[in-house]
Amino acid sequence: MNLSRRQFNGLLLVGTAGASFGLEGCLFSTIEQDVLDYVPVALQAVDSILDLVAPAAGAVATMFTPIIEAALSAVEKSIQDWKDADATQKPGLLGDIIATLQTVMTDLQNFLSAVQVNAPKIYSVVEALASIILGVLQYFVNKLSPATPASKAGMVGGRQIEPLRYSPKQFKAAFNAKAVSLGHPESQIK
Predict the structure, then answer these.
(1) Dihedral pair phi/psi, residue 146, rounded to 5°
(2) Residues 31-80: tens digit of each pLDDT
(3) At 190, is the secondary structure helix, strand, or coil?
């Protein structure tokens, strides 16, 4: 079969477009998948921070571990519910994803407040590491909220959170670099 260059390019374009739209039904599901990919990395980072806090304020770490882990699990569940839903249900479920992300942010802020009171010597390190997690979460909240620019800073517990757009790999690199720069290489995540 002989194809002209124009015919070949036309078939190539149709095949590429079909492949792009066939992955999840539409390209808009990418941000939800990005959040889902981020959750296991965020869990590692939270565990690392909790391990850092434990020697100075074990009760705080013990109290917040199940709270933050449950909130991150709720994010995964809300995204899975969104993926499993039909198109008419997705807008409402998108609100659930945003709400669960905001819950994680609030729980992290409450954790920071408890660390500030109970372990002030380690607080600046914990805050610097947690701000990276909060920044990525703020980016996701902004990106999922239709009327909010992705670059808009948010407020959690009176603290301004600058959104950070990181892939899981970039997040790990930033988190690990910050841990090392703050004198805590043991807090690096894999």
Answers:
(1) -60, -30
(2) 889 999 999 999 999 999 999 999 999 999 999 999 999 999 999 999 99
(3) coil
Please determine, for residue 163, whether its predicted confidence score (pLDDT) is greater than 90.
Answer: yes
Token pair recorded at residue 139: 């980016």
CA distance 101 to 108: 11
Region for residue 40 given its phi and psi (left: phi exceeds 0; alpha: psi -120 to 50; beta: otherwise): alpha
Domain-located, residue 16? no
Q: Residue for token digits 């990181």?
A: 166
* Domain count of the fold of the chain: 1
From CA 172, how far away is CA 31, in angstroms rounded? 18
Domain with 55, as residue range(s), is: 28-187
Residues 6+ apart with CB under 8 A from 171: 38, 41, 42, 45, 132, 136, 164
Domain membership of residue 181 (yes or no) is yes
